[in-house]
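Practice problem: prolyl oligopeptidase
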Amino acid sequence: MSPARSFVALAPLALLVLGCPGQAKVTGPGDKTGPLPSASATVEAPGPALDPPPPTPKKPVFKEYHGESVADDYQWLEDGTSSDVKSWVGDHNRRTRAFLDILPGRQALYTSVRKFVEYGSPAFYAFQHKGGVLFSMRWRPPKQQPFLVTLTPVDKPNAEKVLVDPTTIDPSGNTSIDYYVASPDGAKVAVSLSKGDREGGSIRVFDVGTGREIAEVVPQGAGRYKGKSIAWNAGGTGFFYTRYPSEGEGKSEDRGFFQKVYFHKLYAPVKDDAPALDKLPRLAQIDVETSGDGKFVTARIENGYGGPTEHHIFRQGGGFTKVAGAADEVARVVVGPDGDLYVISKKDAPRGKILKTSAWKPALAKATVVVPEGEAVLRDVLPTPQRLYVRATAGGPSEMRWYDLKGKPGGLVPILPVSAVHEVVLLQDDDLYFENESFTEASAWYRFSSSSGKVEKTAMVQPATADFSDAVVVRETCTSKDGTKIPLSILRRKDAKLDGQNPTILTGQGGFGVVVSPDYDPTRRAWLDVGGVVAVANVRGGGENGDGWHKAGMLTQKQNVFDDFFACAERLFELKVTKNEKLALLGAPQSSLLMGAAITQRPDMFRAVVARGGIYDMLRLEGTPNGAYDVPEYGTTADDKQFKALYGYSPYHRVEDGKPYPATLLLTGENDPRGDPSHARKMAARLLAATSAKAPILLRSSGDTGRGVGTPLEHAVLEAVDVYTFLFHVLGIKKP
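Answer key — structure tokens:
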């Protein structure tokens, strides 16, 4: 199953861009000639007066960690159900609105940004081809949510048939489709629907022919993990599904943990569903998937985000059998149409190699190497009757290759230059559909013909609402504190002057092995039109260069991520792209820690920071419902060395009284299941109490949305307008 890509992921908060490799001279922080002036100490652009922040009393709580007593003045802000906290959040929202709503140019930004956000996402995504029917998620503004359609015949988007429209189910626009899975014969589809951007609700089954809902609703429990999944059996009479303990099942503190795999037979009572795979770790996160012929179901079980992973396989007429344990370092297993099991292994091959064994009698120790490790990082393997298609990452951008079933190289699948392949769907006769985009080409679906080797663009394309023909992307390299070479990509207009005066947005991520790949984001057009520049740093902690790149930026090595980011900022100064007074940081939900570290470690380097989501208190993180899942990436305070690392960079604890901090906009959603909104509350309170600068520090907390998945269109538009309005004001940009 390919997870649905939310349109919000392509909204301006991402602004992640990769570029073409270049031959730029490599320099690093050591080339700096002197100290930078403080960006936060500069005079703000003219604008309305900002109301003083609401009173925030300090209520110190002390806790001892390995002999060190740590005070927490704002722990009381963690209780989101408290009337005092709700009142405090409401006061901050009113203060933020009173400031942002009357800033000059806001209405003009709303008009242009709305167009970009509405049509800045793939029109079709999350394809599945089952029983000759092509299923797809469809995005068509002004609808508030994407909906599920079938396309018969394929390549004819005007022949789409609406199957499940969440706005029909809930006209408020607050119900969304998390994901869907069609049965092997294409006759039924199971859809996970959730409300309020909570990422995970209940499974509902629909008949594809009539569009009517059939069978019963199957709840998946109050879990925090977004990867709940479904896998149909061969006959389409039932499905395996993952769920967390229901209310009254086990201890109350275990809700949101101990995920298991159950089997549900259609029309049978849900209460009779029995576990098909249990006795799993507390932090188990499970993805199940049905093979193309329906004879097998694979289960990938990860122990926490980025933690040890094991794989199981269910064979028709039998039960689940473990294929690989954590020590085997297997990233992916896929069943081929010939009954062979293809395995992407990272053992002694951090960029990945492909092994083959039998799906009926898997024996990893006796598996043969089909595709050895290469320069690119293997992401997925898709076996067809005659071929193996391999999707890989080459430092961020994608590449697609094919091999015969014995591993003999066949060649490249032509894709856009410096681009990303997000999804691949197998068709008949070894043909493919794949979704491809670059940061100058809008997302579109292409068909690859195995017989001719040619690629044709289909009619299923995202509208290109912005023209980037006047832009250029330069690939730079900077040198981090420890000498590691860090890729930096810069998107700018061709006529931009390198005089240090360009307003610039710098972004990055650096965690959980996530690959930052090229994407088409038309909102960048609004930034380039005012002479702006966008840069992305491919820092360690991500997966662009394999497992070693990830491990160098996790646990006690997390400071490398921040050092890489600072080196990239300095490289922008050296190249005279911008200067610190013109530099802003923009963080997606996955990069709030990076934004927090930048605010507290180098506040002199940036004029403004916008951070979405929130992970700032690293000592209290693992005690939040979702924070336990983050321990494999960040570490635990129970370990002395990991505690010292966490406390050493924890943004909330590194705020210093009397220090001038840059203009900061903290955005969070009260329904965020993976970034507890209390982090943003506490960070805002601490910064406001400490800063000596007059730069605005604002908290924007949405009461009925979460992390962005499933956010209604109008919410996404207004948030984007707030971000740009804030940045234009703080950087002194006047829209022409």
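Discussion: The radius of gyration is 25 Å. Students who identified this feature from the tokens alone can consider the problem solved.
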